[in-house]
Design brief:
The protein has helices spanning 8-19, 26-42, 47-52. By secondary structure, it is mainly α.
Length: 53
């Protein structure tokens, strides 16, 4: 299998989708959401897509 380099946006989407399956309490979910929003803001083109969900 050929190894492909991940872009920051693809890596973010992988983490975002994987954490969506976690069962978190309300406080942890808010902290995770805030952290993902900050990270999304650092990746061009990601913040607007994340805000829509």
């Amino acid at each position: 299998m050929e190894e492909q380099q991940l872009t920051p946006k693809t890596a973010f989407e992988i983490v975002y989708n994987a954490t969506g399956a976690l069962q978190l309490n309300r406080t942890d979910a808010r902290v995770l959401d805030a952290a993902l929003r900050v990270l999304a803001g650092l990746i061009p083109g990601t913040a607007a897509e994340f805000a829509e969900e």
